[in-house]
Amino acid sequence: MGLKEIAKMTGYSVSTVSRVLNNKSKYASSKAEKEIWSAAQKLHYARNDAAVHLKTGKSAHFSGHGPYRIGIVMARGLESLEDEFYQRIEEGIRSTVLKAGHQLGETFMLRTVLQNPQCLADINGIVLIGKCNVHNLTSLRTICKHIACTGMNPYYMEIDQIYCNGEHIARTAVQHLLSKGHQKIGYVGECNGDVRYFGYRQAVKSSNLDMDTPYVFDVPQTAEGGRQAARQYLVSEDCPTAVFCVNDVSAIGFIEALKLLRPQQPLPAVIGIGDISKSLEIQPALTTIHLPLWEMGNISARILLDSIEGLHSIPLKVDLPYKLVCRQSC
Q: Which SMART domains does the record associate with it (predicted)?
């Protein structure tokens, strides 16, 4: 299947389809990108590198194996499919797989794969995106031999992984709030097993601040989770003056809920993680930690393909850099 079939299936022009699949889609809407990538997966699209290199005059490099079919597994729930954080990682994976001349498999939910392992029967390797507990990851490895993991939670086991260290990121975020003079710093996100919560606790403890439970809002890392935290914040007897949210989605939900529920009151300082597009659009613009999301997907796909071809025999761990982006919310 080629570009014309995808264009016919989605209703977009061949040129728009080409720009999206070749990561040159800055003028395409997010809706168009999502529909085009979905169609490419359903049609098992693989880029014709021979034609591309014939057109450009560059020689193609083939490994002599494949094409492989690469799938994506989301460790979290269905909400991750609508989260720009995960979508940008997916874009990096898909673009790299296609440029290497391989095929895109489907995007699966982890729960679906564990309940029905047969759905990976024609998949040669997968990239796992997001936090997964050790038990489920061990089970996943019995289903698929070749796995590369990416996200913010490092795994202390022998497996390929590409990550930005969530514990270090959390410490950076809290230290930024401390540098602004805040002594009451809250946490918005999941507490159980998340390294960002551990990093938050360590940063607070090392600064000799009180670790008061009213400052911790244990909620899902979604927009609704942020709204839940805002409602809890408003009924707290001792409110934090600054809040660290584990991702931009929950931070934006938190800010929007506070603005709606108490429009005349000043907001606490808020910092998130991800630097998604809405973090710049919201008022006040969100201070956040920028992660190289596309590169996380790109490098994960490259390492996965190398693993399938036997180009490395030891598990690789790649810790990618991140940076603080200061805006008005702090």
A: HTH_LACI
Name the 3-class secondary structure at 188. strand
pLDDT score for 4: 78
Q: Which amino acid is at 140?
A: L
115 is written with which tokens? 């309940």
Q: In what order do the strands lie in the sheet with 160-163?
A: 103-109, 69-74, 125-129, 147-151, 160-163, 317-319
Number of helices (H), then strands (E), belonging to the chain: the values are: 13, 12
What pLDDT shows up at residue 311? Answer: 94
Which tokens sit at 45?
Answer: 């699209």
Q: What is the pLDDT of residue 58?
A: 43
Asked if residue 302 has pLDDT above 80, the reply is yes
Cβ-Cβ contacts under 8 Å for 103 (sequence gap 6 or more): 44, 45, 46, 67, 68, 69, 70, 97
The fraction of the chain above a pLDDT of 70, given in percent, is: 88
Task: Name the H helices within the chain.
Answer: 3-10, 14-21, 30-42, 49-56, 84-99, 110-115, 134-143, 166-179, 195-206, 223-234, 248-261, 278-281, 293-308
**Do 137 and 155 meet the contact criterion of CB atoms below 8 Å apart?**
yes
Q: What pLDDT is recorded for position 11?
A: 77
Please tell me the predicted confidence (pLDDT) of residue 213: 65
pTM score? 0.82
What would the pLDDT profile of 58-73 be if each residue is shown by its tens digit?
A: 434 445 567 999 999 9
Rounded to whole angstroms, what are the CA distances from 262 to 72, 198, 249, 255, 287? 41, 31, 20, 11, 21
Domains of the chain: 66-164+292-320 (3.40.50.2300), 166-290 (3.40.50.2300)
Radius of gyration over every alpha carbon of the chain, rounded to an integer in angstroms: 21
**Which residues, in sequence order, are bridge partners of residue 292?**
none
Per the CB < 8 A criterion, the answer to whether 17 and 36 are in contact is yes
